[in-house]
Task: inverse folding
């Protein structure tokens, strides 16, 4: 079976940079994204970098169970074996604590927590116990610290952190490696939220953050990194 790396939120920003590094290292990749146009553009870019690997792409909102089941069927039908899962997809929200609505909560939790759980569960079902699988849950430093006007977002990320720790406990001593990644702010479209303008000029370059992550994840030998926190110097 051909081995593959699955990257959610792989059409732009950090996810796309991770995917590009992986194909340059000869890894096969499957990127997931919600926007068909972005998915096509990202796939074309990755195929230009893929010399010894192949690129697959699939439209998927990871927060929708029926779409996750389609991903599961797709991987199974193609005869692929997931080697790395990068849970990278997410959605931001920055608002006062007294303005929270049910729609806001559902939207943020779907993208940052529910989707991570659904996709991980699908990949675990697909992967035989004897196969090694590395799950990389990319969260945020907002999973480590509470921040003003990020109450819903922090709650979702703290939930993702709790899920990650529980996964690690459940699969201790098995062929499942669970890696938690907590990056700080990056210069990506993540911050393009209607009515919310933030100065991101000092934020990190996603390409540089991706390099830190991939280097730590891929080079395992007889050990692996469990937690990665990445912050800008200033």
Result:
């Amino acid at each position: 079976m051909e081995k593959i790396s699955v990257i959610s939120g792989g059409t732009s920003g950090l996810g796309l940079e991770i995917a590009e590094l992986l194909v340059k290292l000869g890894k096969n990749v499957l990127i997931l994204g919600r926007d068909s146009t972005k998915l096509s553009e990202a796939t074309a870019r990755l195929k230009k970098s893929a010399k010894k690997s192949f690129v697959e792409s699939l439209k998927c909102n990871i927060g929708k169970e029926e779409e996750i089941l389609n991903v599961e069927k797709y991987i199974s039908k193609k005869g692929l074996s997931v080697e790395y899962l990068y849970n990278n997809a997410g959605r931001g929200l920055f608002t006062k604590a007294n303005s929270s609505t049910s729609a806001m909560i559902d939207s943020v939790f779907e993208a940052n927590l529910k989707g991570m759980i659904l996709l991980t569960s699908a990949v675990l079902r697909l992967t035989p116990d004897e196969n090694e699988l590395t799950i990389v849950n990319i969260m945020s430093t907002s999973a480590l610290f509470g921040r003003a006007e990020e109450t819903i977002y922090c709650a979702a990320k703290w939930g993702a952190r709790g899920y990650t720790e529980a996964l690690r406990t459940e699969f201790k001593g098995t062929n499942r490696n669970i890696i938690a990644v907590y990056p700080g702010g990056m210069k990506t479209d993540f911050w393009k939220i209607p009515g919310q303008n933030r100065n991101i000029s000092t934020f990190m370059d996603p390409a540089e953050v991706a390099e830190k992550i991939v280097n730590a994840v891929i080079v395992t030998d007889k050990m692996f990194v469990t937690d990665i926190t990445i912050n800008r110097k200033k």
User: Anything to note?
Assistant: DSSP finds six helices and seven strands in the chain. The domain at 2-230 is CATH 3.40.50.720 (Rossmann fold).
